[in-house]
């Protein structure tokens, strides 16, 4: 302070501002000190005084003074002329908007880049269309439904059934079956079917039925593996039991099917072996009267089941969905 002597009220106010700066060194103290200093030093002239006093140069235009009290590295100060003009403009703006008791300082934090977790609600979520459908069935019957009926609705409901409106197999689906892993499995099934046909006496026509063909991968490998046995493939009538329209289209493409006209009728033929292909929603729809070979891979584990609960006087197979 030998180069910049201060005395009287000015010295007192400067000492107060210096103590305030030291107490707040962990925050952006330099900017705060520059904003407070004009009001503190200007109080000696009275509330209505127009006299304006500036901070000493080593306080207002240099960060070396604050560096003595803070371990945080400071950036190089801007040129003194530019820094002084900026400080004066900022101080004038604050003085013009402040009252006699001084301007209020406000600090705002930009939280735009912060993680905002979704709000958690304890309110019950809205029911899906399938849940509403199940509840309507239970309400209409004034009682519970069986587990088998519940599973059938969940799996094969025309609008919301699990298998009905999407391809659930493969990498893009929910699970992978063995035919999707290697073609060898389906080719071996083809050799087994051809041997069984020979054991039947090589009938001219035989129904080859697959239950739940999935994507049709197994059947395509079967036909490819037995394509060299021409008499066998000529005898085939291929019947696919599939209730999903979406999977029927996938099977149509996998088996390389084409529609052709035979007289006044149209039929679908697989170009893998030249055999006709038919689709049915259930096994009872498959025409009878021919020797039959049935293939069902990972099919029965997807069927609705009956689960029984044995009590002292009754056996129940019912469930109910509560709100």
Q: If you compute it from the alpha carbons, what radius of gyration comes out, rounded to the nearest whole angstrom?
A: 43 Å
Helix content: 25-40%
Q: What is the CATH architecture annotation of the domain at 178-302?
A: 3-Layer(aba) Sandwich
What about the largest sheet? 6 strands, mixed
Can you identify the CATH superfamily of the domain at 178-302?
Answer: Vaccinia Virus protein VP39
Instruction: Tell me the number of strands.
Output: 10
Helix segment count? Answer: 12
Distance between the termini: 80 Å
Low-confidence regions: 44-52, 58-63
SS-derived structural category: alpha/beta
Overall mean pLDDT score?
76
Written as H for each helix and E for each strand, in order along the chain, the element string is HHHHHHEHHHEHHEHEEEEEEE
Explain what the structure shows.
InterPro entries: NDUFAF7, NDUFAF7_sf, SAM-dependent_MTases_sf. It is an enzyme of class 2 (transferase). The structure is a single chain. This protein is α/β, with parallel strands linked by helices and 323 residues long. Among the domains are: 129-172 and 306-316, no CATH class; 178-302, Vaccinia Virus protein VP39 (Rossmann fold), CATH 3.40.50.150. The chain has helices spanning 8-23, 29-41, 57-60, 64-67, 80-97, 129-141, 147-156, 178-181, 184-199, 217-225, 230-234, 245-254, and strands at residues 145-146, 206-211, 236-241, 257-262, 265-270, 276-280, 292-295, 309-310, 315-316, 318-319. β5 (265-270) and β6 form a beta hairpin. α1 runs antiparallel to α2 (29-41), α2 (29-41) crosses α5 and α9 (184-199) packs across α10 (217-225). The longest helix has 18 residues, at 80-97. The protein is elongated, with a radius of gyration of 43 Å. The two termini are 80 Å apart. Residues 44-52 and 58-63 have low confidence and may be disordered.
